[in-house]
Design a protein that fits this description.
- The chain is of the alpha+beta class.
- It has a 4-stranded antiparallel beta sheet. A 3-stranded antiparallel beta sheet has the order 7-8-9. A two-stranded antiparallel sheet has the order 1-2.
- A hairpin with a 2-residue loop joins strand 3 and strand 4.
- The radius of gyration is 16 Å and the shape is globular.
- The chain starts with a helix and ends in a 10-residue tail after the last helix.
């Protein structure tokens, strides 16, 4: 909990014992309690955060899983594109880093999380096309063995687990899934503030 308290007190992500100033990084990758976190700041405001990123998701994003890029791009268009890709692996848009921390670390920090803030989404992108979605109303609904997804070596293995073990919904056209509607808009992130 000490790390969580420091995390809440100042705008830093912690990488083992070192701290990283969020203002000086573009694509932040941090290990928080041995979990990988990706962050993007869209030009329209807010922040997109994907917690518990695994190797398959890094490869899906085109990032080197052994040496991922640690800084965001200075070009806002590139940062926006990265944010849309983060959304495709389950990154969530927040109005601020602080609100994300309030909900995920401090369970609301005095303000009850909204239904959208509680929602959990896990995605798979089959090579045959489409989108697999496991959507849950809250973290508490996550299957006990969801960690099996981290054992997948490829997106195909991840998709097989999502479909066969977790009964994820297949959308033949990814644009049919309303939970990623912001990814397909012209300007992206045209969503109501959480």
């Amino acid at each position: 909990m000490e790390v969580a308290q420091k995390f809440l007190q100042r705008p830093y992500f912690w990488l083992t014992k070192a701290s990283w100033n969020l203002d000086s990084l573009d694509w932040v990758i941090a290990l928080v309690l041995a979990l990988l976190v990706l962050v993007s700041w869209p030009s329209s405001g807010g922040v997109i955060i994907k917690n518990e990123v695994d190797a398959v998701e890094l490869m899906f994003l085109g990032l080197d899983r052994l040496n991922p890029q640690m800084k965001r791009d200075i070009d806002p268009a590139v940062e926006d594109a990265f944010g849309r890709e983060l959304r495709k692996i389950g990154g969530k848009w927040w109005r601020s880093e602080q609100r994300s921390l309030d909900v995920t670390v401090a369970q609301g920090n005095g303000r009850e999380p909204t239904a959208e803030e509680r929602k959990m989404q896990v995605f798979g992108w089959p090579s045959s096309g489409g989108l697999l979605v496991l959507e849950l109303e809250s973290h508490e609904e996550m299957p006990e063995d969801i960690g099996r997804l981290t054992l997948a070596f490829t997106m195909e293995e991840r998709c097989r687990l999502l479909e066969e073990r977790f009964h994820a919904m297949l959308y033949k056209d990814p644009r049919e899934y309303e939970g990623l509607a912001d990814v397909w808009t012209k300007d992206g992130y045209e969503m109501e503030a959480l």
